Amino acid sequence: MLNTKNILTACFLLLTLAAGAQTQSKKVVADKIAAIVGDRIILQSDIKNSLADMVRQGAEVPPNGECLLMDQAILSKVLMLQAEKDSLPVTDEEVEADLDNRIRGYINQLGSQEALEEIAGKTIYQIKDDARESVKEQKLAQAMQRKIVDNVRITPVEVKAYFEKIPKDSLPFYESELEVCQIISYPKASRDIEQYVVGEMNNYKRQIESKLTTFDALAKVVSEDPGSKDRGGQYQINRNEKNWDPVFISTAFRLKEGEVSVPVKSKFGYHIIQMVQRNGDDAIVRHILRIPPVTDLEINNAKSKLDTVRTKVMAGKMSFNEAASKYSDDESAKFTGPCITNREGSTYVTIDALDKDMVTMLGKMKVGDYSAPVAYTDEQGKKGVRFVYLKSRSEPHRMNLKDDYSKISTYALEDKKSKALDKWIKDKLPTYYIMIDAETARDCPLLKRFGANN
Fold it and tell me: What is the SS3 assignment for 82?
């Protein structure tokens, strides 16, 4: 059965790596046309390079990996061509944004733009030019796939039927899972403490400008940003990225190369920023972050504030979600809600996904309980206060409809979408010209389903 996720994976592997030797400059493969779909070609080098990159990145490659990649490459071409026929909108701006994100991802992996260009043997602009058409094809294929499955819905009857078809001895066993929600307050440091930190930051700026030390050496000693401290505070940034603090971005792009900013305050703390190199909307910067420490007085004030919120929730004057939306300083709560989520975005988490202080707290709570506000330190070392709501807790169990309806419903929906995509492809394949190289067809019996002219 064709899997929706497989097609997207193939698109990503084939079309990003068609951008050239971005990740491996020493690949040498014989280049020939392995397949033609409509008026588009698939090169043998695309498939072999994709396979080599999967191996290099440590991915598990099945014995027929090359055939699977070819199969999915053909399907993605069909999706892309149909998207063009249906005039599905993919703008140049979307393509450029995707390219920029990928380039930044490669740079973050390799450490610098220079390292990427050295490995690729090309400039950033050449890499983007080589990848642009492939990325557009990928986005068209994804748009077509969404159009096919977006209106697929699932009913309770279908969920039950899906579950009953699963062999009893294949039902997964689940450890205890919890739904844990929290409202967080990050108290602010006193004005005197903030002014003291600003004074220290100004002193750092004078040391750097007097050449008593270098920015990167000082950042490695005093910066409180764990994400950049070890590399001297360096980041690759883009003016249009939304995940950066706007104060940080606007300050950085007002600087000349080599210039160091005055201390500026963002949502993370105080920074001094140095512009290292700028190219249009892209730049390499260094920064030093200092987080003004909060005292017991600020912590206790935050506890008092959250205790008032907790009283309102327990009295039924507002729901927990309403309280979180209004009072929580946790930014993710504004987008995903106040409950902790796992990597897949589910609010059902296992105990090992929680910090040890949370685990200790939950050990004393029953389902439906609200904890007292307690002080804690988050993963970034920031001090805060939180109160916790234990919404649900499941016992270890074998999958069943009562406890796992939501999960089963999701699996059933994905299965139905996969079948809808299968049917669409089966109906559409005969309407496209598909030619597969004779040697490739011979080595990959899987490709016979295309009924291609070889």
Answer: helix
Task: Provide the mean pLDDT of the chain.
Answer: 87
Q: Is residue 317 part of a domain?
A: yes
Cα distance between residue 159 and residue 167, in whole Å: 15
- Residue ending a domain, among 270, 290, 310, is 290
The residues that bridge with 260 in the sheet, in sequence order, are: 274
pLDDT at 21: 36
pLDDT value at 96 more than 90: no
Cα 190 to Cα 295: distance, rounded to the nearest angstrom: 8
| Helix H or strand E encompassing 152 | none
Contact in structure between 357 and 384 (CB atoms under 8 Å): no
Q: What's the structural domain count of the chain?
A: 3
Using one digit for the tens of pLDDT, what is the confidence trace for 317-333? Answer: 999 999 998 999 987 77
Whether the CB-CB separation of 20 and 127 falls below 8 Å is answered with yes
Residue 197: inside a domain, yes or no? Answer: yes
Alpha-carbon gap, residue 401 to 386, rounded angstroms? 34
3-state secondary structure of 269: coil
Q: Are residues 81 and 13 in the same domain?
A: yes
pLDDT tens digit string along 148-191? Answer: 999 999 999 999 999 999 999 999 998 899 999 999 999 999 99
Q: Give exposure, 35-55, as e/b (b: 16+ Cβ within 10 Å).
A: bbbbeeebbbbbbbbbbbbbe
Same domain? 358 vs 239: no
Q: Domain range holding 54?
A: 4-153+413-450
Q: How much is the pLDDT for 452?
A: 62
264-265: strand order across its sheet: 234-238, 282-290, 270-279, 264-265
CA distances from 48 to 7, 334, 335 (A): 17, 44, 40
Amino acid (1-letter code) at residue 296: D
What is the rounded CA–CA span in Å between residue 163 and residue 159?
Answer: 6
Q: By the 8 A CB rule, do 385 and 136 touch? A: no
Residue 141 shares a structural domain with residue 8: yes
